[in-house]
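HUMAN: Ready with one sample?

ASSISTANT:
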Amino acid sequence: MADEEEKRRFCSTGSHWTTGEFRKIGTVRWICMACYRRRKAELRNLPRNKMLAAGRRPKTKA
């Protein structure tokens, strides 16, 4: 038996158990690095975020 067991955590975003690197989101939730990267890419590709990345400001209703 190994001296040190790998810590398994539940990924709140992907709803699965896994080992490896995690990021804490909130007070009790964890997200695995694979889900974190996928989520970050999805947020980056949203139309409004693409405009912000290009340096344009979204139109605001006044």
Q: What stands out?
A: The chain has a mean pLDDT of 80. The two ends are 66 Å apart (CA to CA). The longest strand covers residues 22-25.
